[in-house]
Design goal:
The protein is mostly helical. It is about 80% helix and about 0% strand.
Amino acid sequence: MATAAAGGGANERAAAYLRWHYPVGSALLLLLSLVAFGDNLFTDIHQPSNSDPKMVVHGLFALSWMVLLVVQKNLPRIGRISLHRQLGQSAFWVGAGTVLATLYLFYAVFRGWAVMGPDVLANRVMLPSFGIALLAAWKLRNRPDWHKRLVYCGTLFLLSPILSRVYDPVVAPFMPPYAPGEDDHLFFSYLVIVWAGFFAGQMAYDWLKDRRLHPITLGAFCWTALVNAGLYLA
């Protein structure tokens, strides 16, 4: 009886994880985004970037994508599949707008590859990766197991600029004193830990659901690791 009860408890915890993984993961991504750009949104709304049209358009599209991600990841949980599909059409265009607005921003502020740090160079690679994942998710919208992973893992490709903005005000004050030059290593370690944490959560979801890692999860993780390791360790 005790064994059966323990097994039942484990099954309940697994079911709860499967039910809440995407809603919680997407909410964390939105929270990180709000923290990262809280100065633009709340504490320093009169800064010059808030009156720069290209920055405003980029910010509106990116924030709208994160909000829609949270909404879309919760609708299936509460059984609103039809609304999820209807809203998905608008979400796709918001995602496309995020890609185009950010590409224009890259073009407008381009100062030469030689002066870009590894995180900035990674952004130039991961943004098109998000666009490709989004297009694939649209093509495979009738295959939920692929579609939802493409949307979620594709959004994880956008983490670097968010985590970069979170680091200085939130993480750096709690870091130990470091010598000049060591801050880059600490930032990279922080980036790896947070990024890997999100992917680990997705891998746990895959394992609990199918007892294997889904190709999208594994491919997205390997691509993220390859791009960032290649740029930071080069």
